[in-house]
Hints:
By secondary structure, chain A is an all-alpha fold. Chain A is 72% helix and 0% strand.
Amino acid sequence: MPIYRSERWFQAGLALFFIVMGIIMLVPMLHVIALSLSDSHHATTGHIGLLPQGFTLDSYKKIMGETRIWRSLGVTVYITVLGTLISLFFTSTLAYALSRPRMPGKPLIMKGIVITFIFSVPLIPYFLTVNSLHMLNTLWSIMLPTALGAFNVIIMKTFFQGLSSEIFDAGSIDGCSEFGIFYRLAIPLSKPVFATIGLFHAVGQWNSYFYALIFIRSKELYPIQIVLRGMIVNADMAGWVVNVDTTYSAETLQAGVIIVAILPIVAVYPFLQKYFVKGAYVGSLKE
Amino acid sequence: MLRKLQSNAPLALFIIALPGMLHFIIFKYVPLLGNVIAFQKYDMFRGISGSLWVGLDHFVTMFQYADFANILKNTVILSFYRLVFAFPAPLLLALLLNEIIHTTFKRTVQTVLYFPHFLSWVIVGGIFIRLLHFDGMVNDLLSLFGLERTYWLQQVAYFRTILVTSGIWKEAGWGTIIYLAAIAGVNPNLYEAAMVDGANRWQRMRHVTLPALMPAIIVLLLLRIGHLLDSGAEEVLMFSNPLVRNVAEVIDTYVYRVGLMDAQYSYTTAIGMFKSVVGFILIVGLNRLAKKTTGESIY
């Protein structure tokens, strides 16, 4: 089909629109990067745009020298890695069983899962449940209750159903039990969906702060998001020793911690992107 | 025993599913049943079985309380803004994205638009708070044009705009995925037939793409409305401060603040229940309406 002149104008207009949109998406982040790399004098008097003024790495040096940042990063890595493994265990076992034709009570269980889409879990009773399991102020309270979600189960179940059933039948003829089929056949064949759900969950775990806010009391157990929130919302800068003569300020430190908390997301984003469109697509079919 | 288990596939499958099912029961259904404390004077040390039953007292208190009217109003207004501005944003973006011919450019744009979805609300809040600071970049830009600097975050008038705008910034790009997937599923013959019939771009969008998107739009809209009274505590808590509390207090933050911080468990559970019941009625009612008028429904 020839490209008409009007089409070319339309495409140019679209390109312009999306370039503006892209700038709107990127400018806030560039600004925060610039702020984190500026010195306190320029940062406090404001007026930093997209380029650092009075370039210095001092706020990062200060952040990297703080045990609370390292500790909270450690906590976050821990809850992300272990929480994701726990989540994959619960999600894959349930999804696998539900994908098999001989699973007893399947329609009822599926209904039970879909209902949780409509009724969100009430906050106070949820809190009291976690409390009565003696998980308050432990990292289990952030990792365990959030491990299983209806959406992920449905995505995984759809994936397992898409695997060729002949392989499973062959496995069972060769004397594999259901456990064996799950462990030896289903899991190795399902790396893409494990990666998708795993990455989704990992990002969610890395990012969530609300459950940590309600369940975690000890400062030693604070994830990075809670520490960062303290700095931003409560202006909790006590102990950061921001003097007049330092080259970092409250502003540049906040910006620096924001960047530190974004970096891991930036690092996994290319891998995420490979998988998420498929995952979201499967989800949208079923929703 | 093990041999028997191996030959009994349904039992084995049930055992495989057991951890997941128990998880659902403990962390989804037990809290749902825990809603009964809304009818009690719940005492943490006595538990549900030992606490006094008070019937509908908490619901009566709730409706008489002026605070409740205010948080309900704030919640509904915020939801309404989101419905009007945030809900159509991904749809419009997806329709426009779909028109881009150049594949590499399209992919690049998508990569950039999706990214903010993966940032936490603490980070998005932090970024916006920095931008909107009195000495921040937004005010710098405005003063370039000779406009006055404003304390955006401290003013009641801007709170909802900030919340809805940052939400759009974070989620609009991501929301396009579902629509793009639906568009990708449209039979290309339909477009060719429309073009042969002389349909222009606008007519093709109106008569081919939009009808194809209708199921997705209706399902998403129903789910959105079913969660009309959910405001997202994570995001509201990032932007609320004592100066804007009057408009920033929504059901979710109220339940968090009064329920958890002040340990008013029963009263706020009643409010939470009110929220779910309204959501349930809306979703069931609108689902029926949608089924009747458009043939689409979520169940």
